[in-house]
Amino acid sequence: MAQVKVGVHVSIAGSLDLAVDRAKDAGCNVFQQFSRNPRGWSSKPLSDPDCELYKKKIATTGLLPVDHMPYLPNLASPKPEIWDKSVQSLTAELDRCGKLGIPYLVTHLGHHLGDGIAGGRARVIKAINTALASSGSATMLLLENTAGEKNSVGSSFEHIGAILAGLSDDKRVGVCFDTCHAFAAGYELRTADGIASTLAQFDEQIGFSRLRLIHLNDTKGDLGSGLDRHEHIGMGYIGENGFRRILHDPVFVRLPLVCETPVDERRDDRGNIAKVRELAA
Question: Catalytic residue positions?
Answer without folding.
Answer: 39, 68, 71, 108, 144, 178, 181, 215, 228, 230, 260
